[in-house]
Amino acid sequence: MATSHHIGLHRLPGILRSFSHSYPDVELDIRFMDSEVACQLVEQGELEMAIVTLPTDKPEKLQLEHLWTDQLKVVAATDHPLPSDRHVPLDELTAYAAVLPGPTTYTRQILEEAFSRLGLQLTVNMSTNYLETLKMLAETGLGWSVIPHTMLSSELKIIECDMKLTRDLGAVTHRMRTLSNAAKAMLEMASAAAFR
Prior knowledge:
The chain is an alpha/beta fold. It has 2 domains: 2-68 and 168-194, Periplasmic binding protein-like II (D-Maltodextrin-Binding Protein, domain 2), CATH 3.40.190.10; 70-167, D-Maltodextrin-Binding Protein, domain 2 (3-Layer(aba) Sandwich). Helices cover 32% and strands 25% of the residues. It is built from 7 helices and 9 strands; from the N terminus they run βααβαββαβαβαβββα. The strands form 2 sheets. Strands 1, 2, 3, 4, 7, 8 and 9 form a 7-stranded mixed beta sheet that branches. A two-stranded parallel sheet has the order 5-6.
């Protein structure tokens, strides 16, 4: 199976621990990669499943199972000129440079679609696919960013604006392939953990 670094760090540790205790004879092969690459590899049959950010458009060959919803927050360093004590119009937000996920990521697509619907264009200072790196770049004042609420820190302030963004995280499997017993068990544990 594959997962993204963020999900592997923030959502899977308890599930993996339970799985390993329940099925000690199963050898886990976990690959860390971008969600988009993981979905392609499941579609091509090179991976059995992935637990990743779900695609915004549902690929025909893939089965998607929603597990979690990530609330995405617009954030900036505590000393960034964007105010945190009032509502910021999106056109004011675009006047400042952003540090964002890479242009091919599902998270970036969600963000760009929200801005393009309003006829606004983002000014991107830097991009990376690693959310922990984005958080660091925002904390050091290199631009505002969008990160999951689970990653907020005292070094960041939330910028309130007219944009409520979420992304769906979940399991991706191939519609035409039968899952192994181990993969079925992993899916059951992930589903059970998600709905606790």
